[in-house]
Amino acid sequence: MNVKNYLCCSLIPILLAGCTPSPKVLEDIQLVQTIGYDYVNGEEFEGTAGSSNIPPGEQSLPVNEVFTATGKTSKRIRQKIQAESARPIVVGRVGLVIFNQELAENGIEIQIDSLQRNPSIGRKLLLVVSKEKAKDIIDSNYSQSDSVSQYLIDVVEQNLEQTIPKVNLHRFLVHYYSKDADPFLPLIEKQGKHLKVSGLGIFKDNKLVDTISFGDAYIFKILYEKFRRGQFEVELSGGEDVSLENLSSKPKIMVDKRNGKYTAAFKVKVSGRAMEGVDLDLTDKKTIERIEKAVEREITERAEKMVKRFQELNTDPLRIGEKARQRSDFNRKEWKEQYSQMEIKIEADVNAVQSGIIE
Amino acid sequence: MFPLPKEDKKVSPYFVFYLIHAMQIGVGILGFERIIVQTAGYSAWIAILTSGASIIGLIWVSYRILNKGNNDIVAIHAEIMGKWIGGFFSFLFLLYFFAFALVVLRSYVEVLQVWVFPEVSEWIFVLIIIFLAYSYVTGGFRVVTGVSYLGILYGLPLLLVKFYPLQYADYGNLLPILNASPAELFKASKEMTLNFLGFETLFMFYPFIKDGPKSEKWAYFGVLFSIFIYLLTAFVTFVYFNQEQLKGTIWATLTLWKIVDLIIVERFEYIGISVWFFAILPNICIGLWCASRGMNRLFPVSQRSALRIFCLLLFFISVLLTNRQQIDLLQKAVSQIGLYTIYFYLPCLLVLQYIIMKVKKA
C-alpha cells in the first residue's frame, strides 16, 4: 500500500467518527415500561406511560414515574409526554400495554396500528384489558417492593403460564388479522393493594364485546391450547370437593361439512392426579371413575355454555373458523352465515390417577 | 483478442457453489414471503420449487453456452455477433450487473435506516459500504470469492434463530395444501424468480474457474441450497404469521426476529441486520467486479479505473434515490430486465451460438 492509500484509509474512519448516532446512556433516558390507554371521547384518547427511576445512592428503591397526556394519535400523545419529561422517552422496553375496558369497547385499532408499526416495539409485549382506568392502575402503589411496572408485568406473565391462555402482541395480531378468528385479551382489575387477573376480554374484530370470568378463562385455555401443570377443582355428586393437580390438556378441533352444513367438535384430552379428597378413598377405582365423570361433565357443560355465548355474539376467539378454512371445500360466506347457528359439540376425555403420599 | 486470465488468478471449481449461492441470497430474502403470498396465498411455497427448478434448467443452458465459448460473455458475444453488436449487448450486461449491485446496496441501506438508525442519513452508510466493497474488489477475483465464502459462513447461524418463531407455529396455516390456481402459481413463480437472480454473473467469472466445465455440478448445488434456504424461510414465516397479517408485513423475516428472546439482547433485529451485512456484501462485490471487468474487456481502460468510476456512480445514484417509491421502481426495473434476460435472451443466445458455430465450421 502506498502512502496516499494509507492516508486515505486512516482518514475515512476519523471523518466518519463524527457521524455516529448519539449514544443512549441508560441513566439519561426515560425507559417506558408500561403504557395505558383510556377512553376520553370518540376522537381522543388518553395515554399514560409508566416508568421507574432509580435515584442515585446504593440502596435506593426505584421511584415510580407516570406521565399522562390526551390526543388523537399515539404519536401526538408521545410528543406531549415528552414535553413533561426531563429526559428523552424511549419505548424499546415496553412490556405491558393496558387498554381500559371502555376504550376497548369502542375499538383499539389506532393503538394497535401504532404498536405494530413501530420498529422498536417487540412482539412479546403483553396486552391486557382493565376494568378500571388504565391510569389508575399504573399510577398507584402496590404492596410489592419492585417497581410498579415490573410488578404488573409479573402478575400478568405468571397467569399466562398457569391460568389463562397465552397471548402476547404477536398472538393477538394473528387473531386480529385472521379473517376466520377474533382476538381475546386477559382482563385485569385492581383489588386493594394487589392487581389480579380476572378473566378474559373477548373481541369482535377490534372491539371488545364480552368478558368472561376467571373460571371460564380456564375452560377457554383447555379448549384453546395444549398445556401442562394446570389445576382443576370440581364438586362431586355427593358434595365432596376434589381437585385435579398437575393437569395436562390437549385440545383438538374438528370441523365437518356435510351437504353444505358445517358442524364442529372439540375433543379435549385431560389427564391429572386426583388430590385433596378429604372423605374419599382415592385408591378405589370407582371413586376415580366418579371423579373423571364429574370433571368431564363440568368441562363439557361450562364449555358448551361459553361457546354458545360466543356464537350468539358472532365472535370466534377459539379460532374454529381457522380450522374450517383448512378444509379444501371451505367457503367463507357460507361459514359466516352458519357460524352463529351451527352445532358445536364438546367432548372431554378425562383420565385421573390417584396420588398423594397417604393412602 | 480476449485473453483468458492467468492460472494463478483462478479459483477451484467448487467455489462456484459459494459464488452462485451468495449472489442468490441477498436483500430479497428479508421480505420475499409477502410478495409471493400476495399472489398465491400460502400455497406459494410451491412457487419456490417451480421457479427454483426453472433456474436449474437455466444454469444448464448457461453452461452449454459457456463450455462451448470457453470464455466470458464479452468474448462469446464478439464471436457470435461481431465487435459492434456483440459489444453493445455486452455493455448492456455489465450495466445490468452494476444496477444489481446498486439495488442491493440501496435496499440494504433502506433497511438499516428504517430499523436501526433512523437518525443517520443514508450517504454515510453508502460511503462506508462502497469503501469496503472497493477495497475487496481491488484485491481481484480470488478475494471476491473469499468474501462470498465468508458471507455465507457468517449468515448461516441466523438460521438457528428460526427456532424462536417456531414456538408460536401454527402448522394448520399451510392447509389446504393446494389452494391456488395454476395461473396464480405461475405468477408467484415469476415473482419468486427475482430472488434467484444473480447467477448470471457466472457469464463474467466463468474464465476464472479452473477447469470450468467441472464446476457445473457445484453451480447446481448452489442453486439447490438457495432453494432449501428459501423454502425453510418461507415455511417458518408461513406457520408463524396469519396470511392476512403477512400480506401487510414488508420485511417478514425481520419482523420474525422480533419474537427472539435472548437474555442479553432485547431486540435481536439489530444483531440480525448487522450480521446480514456479510450476506449482502458479496452481492455488491461480485456485481461491481463483473461490471468493472466487463469495462476492461470492452474498452481500453484498466479494471481499477473502471471500478473507481462505478463506485462513484454507485455513490451518487444511491444518494439520489431518497424515498421508498424510487427504490421500489428501481428494484422492479432491474428484476424485470433480469427476468427477460434469463428466460428469453439466454435460450436465444444458445440457439444463435449453435447455428453460427455450425455455419463458421462449414
UniProtKB/TrEMBL annotation, chain A:
Domain Spore germination GerAC-like C-terminal residues, every copy: 198-356
Keywords assigned: Germination, Lipoprotein, Membrane, Palmitate, Signal
Membrane protein topology class: Lipid-anchor
Lipid biosynthesis found in the keyword field: no
Top-level taxon: Bacteria
Family matches, as PANTHER family: SPORE GERMINATION PROTEIN B3 (PTHR35789)
Protein name: Spore germination protein
TrEMBL record, chain B:
GO process terms (BP): spore germination
Membrane spanning residue stretches: 12-32, 44-63, 84-108, 120-137, 144-164, 192-209, 218-241, 270-294, 306-325, 337-356
Transport recorded as keyword: yes
Keywords noted in UniProt: Germination, Membrane, Transmembrane, Transmembrane helix, Transport
A Pfam family hit: Spore_permease
Signal peptide residues on this chain, from the entry's feature table: none
Topology of the protein relative to the lipid bilayer: Multi-pass membrane protein
Primary localisation category: membrane
Compartments (UniProt record): Membrane
UniProt KW Nucleotidyltransferase keyword: no
NCBIfam families for the chain: 2A0309
Family: Belongs to the amino acid-polyamine-organocation (APC) superfamily. Spore germination protein (SGP) (TC 2.A.3.9) family.
Record-given protein name: Spore germination protein
Organism: Cytobacillus firmus DS1
